[in-house]
């Protein structure tokens, strides 16, 4: 891990100049203040949004810029954003981002550094429902499962694992690049550095096209891949190949979560990075030439925000936008920029409803007799007109002591249902033989994926960065953390003019020969 704010030594291949602070002093002496890029450290940084993106960027900014800089985090709702819990009968359940992959290294680093306890997610039995009956049911017997899988789908599962492993191997390169402090000024550039044209090409094609090209069967695509896309992104195989692969990783084994709720990572990151939380909604950002406390006249960004006590403004050297910019989710205006910052009206997030229900599933709905037990803990659905839900999964409270681990599905259990809209009473009565509590949470959950994907820019202005552009490649907690680390490095290198740390070509080969 990098030292706190201390720039790392340059690699042997760079020009052998002294590190940024000394270089900054030399340049200041040569050019005088106010000329060229600003070289004194930034005084204040604004972060808009306290989800996993905003809070992890505050962590990485603190690490890069050191302890002097003041970091303000604006949040109009709750810390955690799309990481949130819902309360039912005294117990909390994850209602947004819930599972974390074992290879999500930023999330792993955070829980370790913040000393947060974690829980393993139950690897329950999965079934696939086609609107009338179960087209596939996992068995708790490993051997029977294997025979079933091969019987139904040949060796496609195995091939899928090999296909994903190749993508994963390349994806993991990001951690290497970031630990060497390299950053990227566009999502496409970042993707290209990971896996070349093959990787950026995944953003241009649907997961259906990608997997058809790789030789997967229609049956496998319809009965397995489509339900997984519906379960994880509420969309079908028309989503881009990269988010499709991320989605398939979401049914791997070894998934975990943070005890007490994943949002705790955000709360603790804020404290750890000694950022100030400002409960308010940012309305607009304007570029201003003003005298800062030190140095001569400099350009700064005036952030205008609304709190309970009224409208306020404040000046910042760097601004991090850590919330999706779409027509609906965030109405931040960029005033008087020349050239103007593009608006984001062509970007949309998909609505999704999480419903938590305590009840007993209705076997006949799943094509079983009333006396059967459903016996599954995850029921995914194919894309068909009869499916009014994306998925139904058994869940446990975020607090460990109440773990219901081995409770059979016939008894009343707590289920989490994803659907495109609110479930009606009739629909709930179809799914459940009996139920006693229902809670729901509406989300604008993910981008509406529509390849060829054009990701929004990361650099909106000299020192304004947009983290959530990465969501148009794939939306997940770890993607937010990767975008945050990248944005912190990018902001740092652009501040000190270290262009050789940005958008380097051939990084993989370069780092391979360096070690
Ligand atoms: C139902 C659901 C299930 C999911 N499941 C998973 C999963 O299992 N695993 C996984 O990895 N990911 C999952 N995700 C995705 C994951 O939750 C998101 O990718 C991630 O949480 C996004 O974090 P973020 O910080 O980028 O954005 P957000 O969490 O949306 O944070 C943005 C914050 O900015 C605030 N804000 C917006 N505008 C302003 C303003 N003008 N002024 C001040 N504050 C503002 C918002 O209130 C919000 O808190 C899921 C998402 C949903 C909705
Ligand atoms: C992806 O599509 C864009 C146009 O939408 C094109 O410019 C780019 O070269 C394509 N990339 C690859 C790797 O096919």
UniProtKB/TrEMBL annotation:
Its cofactor is FAD. Residues 136-504 form the Prenylcysteine lyase domain. InterPro entries: FAD/NAD-bd_sf, Prenylcys_lyase, Prenylcysteine_Oxase1. Its EC number is 1.8.3.5. GO terms for molecular function: FAD binding; prenylcysteine oxidase activity. GO terms for cellular component: lysosome; very-low-density lipoprotein particle. It is found in: Lysosome. SUPFAM superfamilies: FAD/NAD(P)-binding domain. Gene3D superfamilies: FAD/NAD(P)-binding domain. GO terms for biological process: prenylated protein catabolic process; prenylcysteine catabolic process. It catalyses: [(2E,6E,10E)-geranylgeranyl]-L-cysteine + O2 + H2O = (2E,6E,10E)-geranylgeranial + L-cysteine + H2O2; an S-polyprenyl-L-cysteine + O2 + H2O = a polyprenal + L-cysteine + H2O2; S-(2E,6E)-farnesyl-L-cysteine + O2 + H2O = (2E,6E)-farnesal + L-cysteine + H2O2. The keyword Signal applies. The keyword Signal applies. Keywords: FAD, Flavoprotein, Glycoprotein, Lysosome, Oxidoreductase, Signal. Residues 1-36 form the signal peptide. Belongs to the prenylcysteine oxidase family. Prenylcysteine oxidase that cleaves the thioether bond of prenyl-L-cysteines, such as farnesylcysteine and geranylgeranylcysteine. Only active against free prenylcysteines and not prenylcysteine residues within prenylated proteins or peptides. Involved in the final step in the degradation of prenylated proteins, by degrading prenylcysteines after the protein has been degraded. This is Prenylcysteine oxidase 1. It comes from Vombatus ursinus (Common wombat). The lineage of its organism: Eukaryota, Metazoa, Chordata, Craniata, Vertebrata.
